[in-house]
Amino acid sequence: MPGCVSTGTPDTSGMSFSATPLPGKIVWNDLLTEDLDSAKRFYGELFGWTFESTTAANGRPYLLARSGTAYVAGLLSVAPRSDGKKLSRWLPYVSVADVDAAVGRATQSRGTVAVAARDVRIGRVAAIVDPEGAVLGLVRSRIGDPDDTTTQAAPGRIVWTELISNDPAAAADFYRSVVGFETRTIERRGGRYTKLVAQGVDRAGILQNPADQWSPEWLTYLGVDDPAAAASRAEALGGRVLLPVSPGIREGTMAIIADPSGAVLVLQKVST
Amino acid sequence: MNHRARVLRRYFRAGCTVILVLSMLSLSSCSGNVGVGVSVGVPVGNHGFMSVGTSRWY
Questions:
Q1: What is the DSSP letter of B42?
Q2: B43 pLDDT above the threshold of 60
Q3: What predicted TM-score, i.e. pTM, was given to this entire model?
Q4: Inter-chain touch B32–A135, beta carbons under 8 Å
Q5: CB-based burial label for A98 (10 Å; 0-12, 13-18, 19+)
Q6: ipTM of the predicted structure?
Q7: Across the interface, do B37 and A212 touch by the CB < 8 Å criterion?
Q8: pLDDT tens-digit profile of A218-239?
Q9: SS3 of A137, please?
């Protein structure tokens, strides 16, 4: 059976899945890392994750990370590139009704294909590169998607996904076309923020690139009780703080860090 | 209904049951499957300079 390549059967009894997929929802996140051992130690210590070892379809080591009873992410070992360019990144996967059709719409809208559509354990997947260079995974699960109860915001969970874009209006057009999002642009904190909405639920956001010389990319937000303390802990574990907590930035609720292999993530305060 | 029709219907029902059971087994063997595990091979971009002085985090 294509895709059923895990060495054991993950226990998903602590999760609940929708009867049918939830197009537009970010339903999975993989960390691609050139240093799996360091990543395992880092995320295990920082978020209390536990891990189950398995193997990806390409034979590389792949860890399934759990926060409590829920699987929250995958950690995939990737071989370093010969040219020295870094590959470590968080890669979100958005649920789509038809992966192949979504890839087709992406290429018609000046996107490119990073990974052609294929069957893996979760279902059919692909990865696209949008016209600004941000990479996003597409997935059609064969068993439904984790429902909103299972993915409720909590420390140790992935709580938000955001595109940093140099041209939010064009990006919104692109993702409306490819994924089928509705978009809603709001005024807040003196600026504009675009929400990507599906079935009436905010699923992701687009932010005008706030930094100098920062390449457009999808950012993965992980929930923490105290972002400043978590950022400090991340540094002690071998990570780097790229943007410390500041009262002037979203009321001091976030910090941006890089893990030991350079993958960027956001530490987002969540209520407990 | 003649005997032949009853037998055919019985075989049809049995066949449907087998297909249903196989489908359930197939789904259950994958139902625990989570994760993707695909490498994209695309280098990451520049993370530039992030300044706490910026007020552009809307």
A1: P
A2: yes
A3: 0.86
A4: no
A5: middle
A6: 0.77
A7: no
A8: 999 999 999 999 999 999 999 9
A9: strand
